Amino acid sequence: MPLLPTNFRIFLRETGEIARFTGRFFVEGLKPRYEFAEFIKQCFILGYKSLPLVGLTAFIIGLVLTMQLRPTMEYFGVEVQIPAMVGVAIFREIGPILTALIFAGKIGSSIGAELGSMKVTEQIDAMEVSGTNPFKFLVVTRTLAATLMLPILTILSDAIALTGCFLGENLYQSLTYNLFFRKVFLNLAYIDFIPAFIKTFFFGFAIAIVGCYKGYSTERGTEGVGRAANSSVVISSVLIFIIDLIAVQIANIFQ
Amino acid sequence: MKEAVIRIKELSKAFGSNQVLIGFDLDLYRGENLVVLGKSGSGKSVLIKCIIGLIDPDAGSINVLGQDVLSLDHQELDHLRVKLGFLFQSNALYDSMTIRENLEFPLRRHSIQLSDRETDDLVMEALENVGLEHTVDMMPIELSGGMRKRIALARTLILKPDIILYDEPTTGLDPITSLEIISLINKIKEKYGTSSMIISHDMRCVKLTADRLAVLVDGKCKVVGTYDQVSRIQDEDISPFFN
Ligand SMILES: Nc1ncnc2c1ncn2[C@@H]1O[C@H](COP(=O)(O)OP(=O)(O)OP(=O)(O)O)[C@@H](O)[C@H]1O
Ligand SMILES: [Mg+2]
Predict the structure, then answer these.
(1) Which of A55, A82, A137, B22 sits in a 20 to 30 Å window from B92, CA-based?
(2) Does B94 lie at the interface with A, CB-CB under 8 angstroms?
């Protein structure tokens, strides 16, 4: 009779493996040769190409949130506070977490599937015999690019969500852009924005490192590729919420 | 006495409890085509991945062009790999790159100093060798299996290696395409004087390419000899290949 249930042991082993993989990222990432060209290419693919999807969802969430809030806020007679409330919600929580989840769905799965299929079709081996360290070329570049791109995407998505909110407000009343943003930022402090911004770096890092780990450790066979893509999204989504929880606790210390 | 370009001694490798190679010995001589025959799962791919340093064996020694592969550091291994071509069983073409980028990859990555013009010439020469100049701007996904195999061969050839390791070059191809690959393998040997180790269990490929033939059974090299010598041996592990 084993001491721990099998599932729990698998969980522990997986956690250990991801931790070791992360350690390897720092060791290999710091050593030269730096794959700068590939890094820029990945910034373009991971960042720029995610923008339409991230922008669309942010816009819709901003709009819907505003429309959903209105009846309740009217009931309490504080509908003038809608922009302020939506602003805080977007900057502190919805912007970062929504962007991260969309990013995990799009980028986490594509990194998992890409590296997974490169693994099973021996492309990673082929890189290695062609004078390339595949870990640097594939994992380090993608992880750095995702870590850098997600915060930028989050800022853009915050802005787009506010635009959605502005439109939502204008469905019911005529509000100038100027007045709207004044209302939003009047109630916002740096403490609302900075911790939420910092945590997005960790979100981006977690999403990419999990995707890379899953892809890189894909076992032989094509069904392994699908599993790698799928579990990348599941694990990184859960990680996002865990990091979020920790980040809130830390931010509260400074409040 | 012929000069050995690859000398494998007492090579052993296990994955967990799965003992794949147990004291494997084999020499590859300069300028010959040596075929390694063995049934599926017998460890043929593991063997040649050990030679090129992709898999670390548990015991034994591998000497390639006078260098002990297992004691080389990363940089020395990269230098050696320039002279050592490898044709992967699954081709291993980079899906996200065009054929041109696929072929340029080893040239650029091995930090060989070439002008754009020279790189371009080498790419076109390699494609000419396999008769696929027109695919240069296509993606691997647009090509048939046989074409992909030929592109993979072109990518292996582009560095003009002294030794080429072929991992099942004709498996999964129709008889006509596999005949094309076989004649390419022989053409390369004639044209560049390359020494080759060819993993195969396609008997037509074996017959048409082999100067010598080695049979891998139970992790050991059971016999080495010419095709005629080996095909006459009456043995339950060897005869089935020839019937
Ligand atoms: N990375 C690995 N991890 C664990 N086991 C492995 C690994 N690579 C190969 N093996 C095992 O080693 C044995 C030999 O595999 P190998 O790929 O060398 O066979 P092969 O002779 O090339 O067969 P085939 O003709 O099907 O390609 C198999 O049992 C395989 O499961
Ligand atoms: Mg094989």
Answers:
(1) B22
(2) yes
Sort out which chain B residues have CB atoms less than 8 A from A132's CB and list them: 105, 109
Å from CA of B15 to ligand 1 middle: 9
Chain B residues with CB inside 8 Å of A129's CB?
52-54, 81, 84, 86
Q: Are A122 and B52 in contact (CB < 8 Å)?
A: no
What is the DSSP code (8-state) at residue A34?
P
Between CA A161 and CA A180 the distance in angstroms is: 13
Cβ separation A131–B92 shorter than 8 A: no
Q: Are B61 and B9 in contact (CB under 8 A)?
A: yes
Q: How far apart are CA B9 and CA A8, in angstroms?
A: 44
**With an 8 Å Cβ cutoff, are A123 and B106 in contact?**
no
d(CA A205, CA A210): 8
* Per-residue pLDDT tens over the stretch B79-106: 999 999 999 999 999 999 999 999 999 9
- Give the whole-angstrom CA distance, residue B22 versus residue B218: 8
ipTM of model:
0.92
A174: its two tokens: 């005529």
What number is the average pLDDT over the span A81-108?
94
Instruction: For residue B122, report the distance from its CA to the centre of ligand 1, in Å.
Output: 34
Of all residues in chain B, the percent with pLDDT exceeding 70 is 100
Q: How far is the alpha carbon of A39 from chain B, nearest alpha carbon, in Å?
A: 15
Domain boundary assignment for chain A: 36-253
